[in-house]
Amino acid sequence: MSVARALMPTLAAVVLVAIAVSLGNWQTRRADEKRELQHQREAADREAPALLGPLVLSDAEARQLEGRRVVVRGTLLPERNVYIDNRSHKGVAGFHLATPLRIEGARAANAEAMHVLVLRGWVPRDPYERTRLPEVPAPDGPVELTGLAQRELPQALELRSSETPGVEQRIWQNLTLDAFAAWSGLRLQPLLIRQTAPARGDGGPVADEIVREWPQPGFDVDKHRGYAFQWYALAGTTAALWVWFVVLRPLLARRDEAGRVK
Q: Given this model, what pLDDT does residue 2 score?
């Protein structure tokens, strides 16, 4: 095969191998990151929960708390509930419910109260009326909540940027702390709490029928490893085909032709 004829398949092979290896490396990194998060989660479960108070956290303090168990005391504000759409549980369509909590504690006169956004769990969607919001009970008085601190929520893929939710809009495709703070007008801590157990009031645990079966960070590590293997296999197969069609096959053809000439 001439150099000119070999150029195009060579370039195509190089590009495909580079892309496949890059994607394989990305999947490997994702597996390593999730395995590390799982180790952090297991370590956090062995530690006593940190108390989240009314003083605003710095970015450094929020990073230190990320992934740790925290406990906070205050009052839930269900009038500012937000329902994150397209969240399923065991094949059933529903929402993730987010509710701000006004953190209790002394504060200076005329100062704004501090809040933290709580991801309370999963609730089912009305199977007949998509926009009908489920009725989720919330305790009237102060409660104590325990959960995992995280600085942001995973975002669902959107084909175009969502418009800013209206004042009365409660069903959101995605939720960020900045967007919620702007929508609600509340002063928020720079993290949210993913609730892992029922809230506790003066009379004990508060029943709310919310599902809190959160996936563990390392539950799909094998999936990422499998994807990585597939990408590496594609890279190896592409390289092998290039060697056969561009190097070995033309070489064997030239030997056969030389043999027939003799």
A: 59
